[in-house]
Structures are given as structure tokens and as C-alpha cells.
Amino acid sequence: MILKQLSVFVENKEGRMKDITQVLKDSGINIKTLSLADTTEYGMLRLIVSDPDLAKAKLREAGFPVSITDVLAVKADDRIGFLHDMLCKLEGNISSIEYMYTLPTEEGPVVILKVANPSEVEQVLENI
Amino acid sequence: MIWNETKECMSRDEMNHLQSTRLVKQVNYVYHNVEYYRKKMQAAGLEPGDITGIEDITKLPFTTKDDLRNTYPCGLFAVPRSEVVRIHASSGTTGKATVVGYTRRDIEVWSECVSRVLAMAGVGKNDTVQVSYGYGLFTGGLGAHYGVENVGATVVPLSTGNTKKQLTMMKDLGVTSIMCTPSYLMYLTESIEEQGILDELQLKSAVCGAEPWTEEMRNQIESRLHIKAHDIYGLSEIMGPGVAGDCVYHKGLHINEDHFLPEIISAETLTPIGDGEIGELVFTTLTKEALPLIRYRTKDLTSINHGKCECGRTTARLSRFVGRSDDMLIIRGVNVFPSQVEAALLEMGEVSPNYLMIVDRVNNLDTLEVLVEVDEKFFSDEIKELENLTKKITHVLQQALLIQPKVKLVEPKTLERSEGKAKRVIDKRKL
């Protein structure tokens, strides 16, 4: 499945994360999962939320640079070797995985992947 | 449109004659009415009679900001307080505030000068002009205001701040021209784009000044707002905005030479230099009553061109300002102007021209950090893309400045926006 992920540029400043969560809370937006990548100067916060378009609008209003990116969500089996097997299937079909994190759901974990060609990769995983 | 053809289009001979007559009169006036100047001239062995025309200008001593500070607040005024109808003062960012004064006649001349610049921008009585310079001790607001009234246009005195109100008024009143600092206009441009209201505006022109800006910034303003942007130059010591301005050809700023005699001098030798060569701009007021100044060193770096302009005006033109000699930073021995950073960023086109330079000295070595705002249009979700952008900015700035800066991306609109003047440099070095 392809999901809309929210990406937010965050300066390394005290309280900046809290400013973001404040906006989301006030707008009634639920955070499903998140991943925070950090560099020395700034961070990149990636979020899967209940309403990405509303979240984008609200965060923009609050002055955050924000964009929506398509990411691929793959349901994971909770067993040894699943991730390895999946990556083996993908070998040769994608250029590279930019980043990866997981989303917990009631039906178990889901792996979120950022690839250049998410719909093609989805096909590959379905066809195997 | 030429506001005052008689004065703006006279031949060089006529202008030199007029300037000479006025200079002789002004020197005489200063000698007899300002004790400080009289003593200064006497110390230099000069009498008013020694000055017979503009060719004698170099005999006269210079005036600097220090002279104004030494005589704070009104020691250089040539008239009693009863003749002074208005006071302005400089912000005093580089020291004690400088107080300037105007007689009724000075205000008239000032309005005339601003009117000439407005006419260059095509502003006439059918226009509605929003003045978004600060009103108060700063000469920008009231100076522009009186000029707009003098041309008979409708003035909307919004002063600075409250962007929302600025845009509402601009839209609802059908404002056709705006006067403000270029950096504030850039800020308004961003807000106009965010709100998507450009189509609802009737803006045709902007007359911007009070801080140095670049040709690239003019291009941005013109293409993003679909307007014509003009430059207005001035300084409170000499008068305020309206000392010079640029016509539709944008080939330099026409000086209102019949009121202000310009010279360009070498900042090192203090001797006059020729047309086209860059040096420090020096002005002598020719008609000022309250605060006449002789050979005032502006610290602004530019060159002059006495040739006739395509627009028909014959008044001498100043080239775009290179910077101010006191804005110039010397970093690791290299001369750096903030305007170079602005020009380089705008030329790159991938970031907003909002930047802050932080100069420091670590272990006896100068460091330059440049904070640049991330532009949402070019914002990437991938860190490697942002890192590439940082590298690219570093490279572009290094090419332009000849020193390697450390570039840091910051969130949009985090850098202080000038509603008066932009703060572009923080120098933390303790020398």
C-alpha cells in the first residue's frame, strides 16, 4: 500500500519538536508512527498521521517547511528472516532504499520504505 | 515623466554655474551661522571668499559623522530653534543617534526631491501610494509621505509592521505603488504569494530604499509581483530619501544635483577620482537652511557618471552601491560585502535571499557562518538532497566571496525580517 508521509524540516532548537506536536494535537491529528533523522544542524521528522493534508496545512501555517512524500507500506510477518527475505525479493528491482522505519498496527507491524519508484516496487512484492 | 525639466535637464555648463553660485552662498552662510564650521575653516586658513566656484570645493575640510556627534544634538544647526519645523534622527546603530533639523523651506525642497524620484517611477496624481517605511524619527516615512502628497497622489500612511493589515489595505484601496525597504517588500511578496492574492492587487510600481539592494533583488521583485521597482537613495544627514533615484532605464541613480553637490573620493587618499571609478560618496548641501553640511562623507561606496541619460535627464548618476565602507567586513583579510551574499543566493535561485552572516574569531582565525532560510519550493524530504544544497550554497558563496563560509540551513522566516532595515551581519569578533 502507498501511504502519504509528512516530512518536516526541524532546526536543532530546544522545544521545536514540542511546537510540532502542539500543532498536531490542537488540530486533532493522530500520529500513527514517526521517524526522526538527525544531522548536526537540523532534523528531518517523518510522520504517518491520521490526516496528512490537514497536518501539512496546519504545520505550514505554523511556519514549518513541510512536504508530503509517497512511501511504500509493506505488511510484515513477525518471524525471523522476514525483512531479509523481502529485501532479497527487491534486489535488482529498485535503485536504493532511502530510509526505512516501522508502523505498528493492530494486525501487526508494517515496514515503511522510501524508494524512488514505490508503485513499481509494490507490484514486485505482490507478484512474488 | 520628468517632474522638473528646468532643473533635471539643464546643460552641464548651466548646472555647474548654478552649483557654483549656490556653493559660494552656502559656504558664506555656514561660515557666518555655524561656529563649529567657522572654527574649522579658520583652522584650515580659509575664508568664505576663497571659494569662488565648485572647482574650489577640495579646499574645504570634510565633515564626518563624528562632527555631528561632537556637536550633538544641534551644534551644527545654522538657524535658531524658532526656524526649525521638524527634527529627525538616525537610528544610532553605530553609536549615539544623529539629530537633524529642517526649516519650512528645507521640507519643501525635500518634498520636491522625493517628487522627482516618484515621477521617475511614473507615480502621479492618479496613484495611490502605500508608505510602509517607519514613521517617526526615521526620515523614511515622513520624507516619502510629503513627497507623495506633493505629487498629488493619495498617500496611505501604513508605516511598518502588521503585514496582514498592509495587504488588506493594499488590496481594498487598490494601491498602485508602494514605498518601503526592499527587504520588507520581499517579505510582503512572500506573504502575497502565500495568500495567493496577487491577481486582486493593482500594484504597478515600488520605490524602495533605505538599505542597499542588488539588481538581482530588483529582478525578483519585478518578476514576482509584475511591477516596476525603483531605487530611492538618501541619508538623513543630507536630507533623507530623495537625494537620488533611478529612472526607467535603471542606469544609475539621478542625483538632485541642484541641491546636493556630489564628489567621489578615494577612501585612502581622500582625493577626488574620476567618473566610473569606485570611491566614497561625498555630498555638500547647496540649499539647506537648518543643517547645511560641507563635504559630508557618506561612507557609501559607488561611482559617478556625468553623461546624459536616455531618459533626457542630465543630472549625474550614481552607480548601484557597492556597499558602505562601514558595512564592509574584512574576513581573513578579504573584503566582504553583505550585498555579495545576497546577489549570489538570488542568482542560484534555489533558496530565498534571506540570510544572516555571523562572523566570529576562533583560535585567532576568522570564521564566517551564513544562515540561509530553506525555501519551501525547493525543500526536499531527503537529507542527502539538503546536504547537496548546503554544499552548492557553500560553493557559490565561496566563488563570490573568495573565502569559504560554513553554511547552515534554517527554517523559513526564522531570520529577523526587517520592517525597518534588515539585519544581515552579526560580528562577534572582539578586536
Structural notes for this entry:
The complex is a heterodimer of chains A (128) and B (431). Chain A has 128 residues and is of the alpha+beta class. Chain A folds into two domains: 68 residues, VC0802-like (2-Layer Sandwich); 57 residues, no CATH class. Helix content of chain A is 31%, strand content 41%. Chain A is built from four helices and six strands, in the order βαββαβαββα. In chain A, strands 2-3-1-4-6-5 form a six-stranded antiparallel beta sheet. In chain A, β5 and β6 form a beta hairpin. Chain A starts with a strand and ends with a helix. The mean pLDDT of chain A is 89. Chain B is of the alpha/beta class and 431 residues long. Chain B has two domains: 326 residues, ANL, N-terminal domain (Rossmann fold); 99 residues, ANL, C-terminal domain (GMP Synthetase, Chain A, domain 3). Helices cover 32% and strands 24% of the residues of chain B. A nine-stranded mixed beta sheet of chain B has the order 4-3-5-6-7-8-9-14-13, with helices on both faces. In chain B, strands 10-11-12-15 form a four-stranded antiparallel beta sheet. In chain B, α8 runs parallel beside α9, α9 crosses α10 and α10 packs across α11. The radius of gyration of chain B is 22 Å and the shape is globular. The chains are: A alpha+beta (128), B alpha/beta (431). The interface between A and B is medium-sized, with 20 and 17 residues.
